Please model this.
Amino acid sequence: MKISVCIDAVLRGYDLDKSLQTVKSLGIDSFEFWAWWNKDIDRLVQLKQDLHLEVVTFCTKFISLVDSSKKEEYLSGLQESIVVAKRLDCKRLITQVGNELTDLPRNQQRENLIDGLKACVPFLEQSGMTLLVEPLNINVDHKGYFLYRSDEAFEIVDEVGSNHVKVLFDIYHQQITEGNLINTIIRNIDKIGHFHAAGHPGRHELGNGEINYKAIFNAIRKVGFNGYIGLEYFPLTDPKDGIEESKTY
Model:
């Protein structure tokens, strides 16, 4: 298990240079971010090389997968994102799936989502990328979002049937939606490609709230997960303090 810092959340307000220099100064070699299209990719490439940092993951374009009329637009956005990922030597892309459509049965939207993900597989295989499908909570942060339960996300990944499509298990979101975190993670670890972590309530530092991150990280470690835990929270105090605390977990 390794820590990755989401610079758009934990270090929001910092410019790109300061963000990555801060990550490196804390002894962390990995970072991630949200959108690539609002960043100076040339500068990002240079900083990554100069500081010997790894880009763990970032988001593909925010285009609905539950709306079949947007399928080609989504695939085009995925291909653009893959080009950027290759420049950054990044092997994982995060995808959201879009909001639930009010005029289409939910089961049809689910089929559209699965069909869209299956259409992504050839591009992912060719590029060696993994697409991380992210459930989000609809109670606090993302009202109207289609995919909010992890069990449905795991079922969808099973139906897609490719090792290049996995679930991004956001511990914060799934605590809000369903709880039962450790058992769910252990049962489905082979389908999880990445984790996000934040305290709840408030989406702040990991030690701030009701989630027992020490126990959760220990369980993840015991089942042999050797990927990344992405810190994705909005700090209440100096960001360096929260990152240092997270390292002790």
